[in-house]
Amino acid sequence: MSGYIYFTDEQKERANSVDLVDFLQRQGEKLLPSGRDKRLARDHSITVRGNRWYDHSAQEGSYAIDLVKRLYNLSFPEAVSLLLGGEQGVEYRQHNKSSEPEQRKPFVLPPAHTDMRRVFAYLIKQRCISREVLSEFAREKLLFEDAEYHNAVFVGFDEKGMARHAHKKSTVTDSGFRINVEGSNPAYSFHYISKSPYPHNLFAFEAPIDLLSYISLHPQNWKNASYVALNGVSEQPILKLLGMYPQLDHVVLCLDHDAAGIEATERIYDILMEHGQFAAGQAQSKYKDWNEDLKAQHGFTPIPAEEHPQLLLRDELCEEISKFTWEHQSADCSVDVFRKTLQNCRGNPQQRKNALVKLAGLSVLAATKEYKRISHCRDLSTVESRLKYSFKTYQNHGRLENKLSDIGNSLMPLFLCSQIETQSEKQSCAESFEQLASECLKGAVLVELSIQKAAEKKQEQGGLCLS
């Protein structure tokens, strides 16, 4: 958006008061029920209610403008304009502040039923979970049946043995009801800590039933490991347990086999690396989640896994980039060539994709040449491999126009490399070319996604015309 746009205080207040459920659904976002909140399907850590949002992984939240800036990589004026209806003149529903509760209730466990027959029947017959596993969790008071609605209640305790978190799941057939008890502390979600004093694994899952399903699938010596359900995709429970129990020396991320789970796995892995937890890996279910794997073993038809569309495109585009680099190893990597290629990114979608693939290839070649100048071991194959496996889907959201602008801004400083002298400066220059290649790959993935969506939309419209 060019030029400065002035908004009155009243306009900014109206933008910040937009009902986020209404707004997000009309942007095509899928929202999932999460108690009184709605959870963003593409990022389970973000919940919205009214005009407010909260990111449970980052432990921060605010009002509508900040969320729109964050989700769509927009500037403040662009976000305000979009919330006010933009050029389309759309009017979004305003949130009624008087409908919000004044304060949060303190955490209290719901009263327990005298027995657990309905919970056991549901978890064994419908979810196929091992009776022995359920009995162990019940003995440890980590699982019980509530008295009023016969929900399964999964309890999380703190280091002093005090209940601090509880998650309720309906035992009614085909009911999707699940909710955290109000006042629950997300850092102490449902978990099982092995009594083994020796170093062992911590397995992390999205939901309690996934956790119990994994143990049912892998019963041998299961008590020699520890387990935690994140009740979504927040890293808080993992970091809390790592701080509390030094014997947890390796984290295994076992999140859902779908786009949201894949993004969360990448994000939490990076957070663990930032916290110095270098012993981390992942285990992926064959079907959508571990309970689907368990049900398939018992003859049920499972929900299939969902691969991340960006990862599928990453693989295809990396092959195109590799083909370019191997065919043009002596290519001119001068500033003029980069400039001309960047200009082609302003053409139609196919021209943009081709230009970004070429820019990525040129950046890979430039990085390889810089590494060769300092006798570094990173050759062309290594740089290409690093490009592919450094790609993170959770980092690739937002508008393509902004990404193209970032690519252009980062391009010019790279051609000062000829003026640097030290080995460390030359290595830094090579790594900057690698980063440029990474941004070009991300841009190419976004363009290809837009091409595919346009083709799907055209096909749908053609189908409607025929009908």
Name a few traits of the molecule.
467 residues, alpha+beta, Dna Topoisomerase Vi A Subunit, Chain: A, domain 2, 5-stranded antiparallel β-sheet, 5-stranded mixed β-sheet, 14 strands, 13% strand
Describe, in plain words, how this protein is organized in 3D.
The chain has 467 residues and is of the alpha+beta class. It has 3 domains: 9-99, Alpha-Beta Complex (DNA Primase, Chain A); 117-297, Dna Topoisomerase Vi A Subunit, Chain: A, domain 2; 309-456, no CATH class. 46% of the residues lie in helices and 13% in strands. It has 16 helices and 14 strands. It has helices spanning 9-16, 20-26, 64-72, 76-83, 117-126, 131-139, 208-217, 236-244, 259-274, 290-297, 309-327, 335-343, 349-373, 380-389, 400-411, 423-466, and strands spanning 31-34, 37-40, 46-49, 52-55, 60-63, 143-145, 152-157, 163-169, 178-180, 191-192, 200-205, 226-229, 248-253, 280-282. A 5-stranded antiparallel beta sheet has the order 1-2-3-4-5. Strand 3 (46-49) and strand 4 (52-55) form a beta hairpin. Helix 11 crosses helix 13. The longest helix is centred in the last third of the chain and has 44 residues, at 423-466. The chain is globular. The two termini are 40 Å apart. This is Toprim domain-containing protein. InterPro entries: DUF3991. Residues 121-195 form the DUF3991 domain.
Helix content: 40-55%
SS content category: alpha+beta
The first-to-last residue Cα distance is 40 Å
Total helical segments: 16
Q: What fold name goes in the CATH topology slot of the largest domain?
A: Dna Topoisomerase Vi A Subunit, Chain: A, domain 2
Spatial order of strands in the largest sheet: 1-2-3-4-5
Mind summarizing the main beta sheet? 5 strands, antiparallel
Number of domains: 3
Low-confidence segments, given as residue ranges, are: none
H/E topology pattern: HHEEEEEHHHHEEEEEEHEHEHEHHHHHHH
Count of DSSP strands: 14
What portion of residues belong to β-strands?
5-15%
Task: Give the overall average pLDDT.
Answer: 88
CATH C-level class of the largest domain? Alpha Beta
CATH architecture of the largest domain: 3-Layer(aba) Sandwich
Rg over CA atoms, rounded to whole Å, is 25 Å
What is the global morphology? Answer: globular
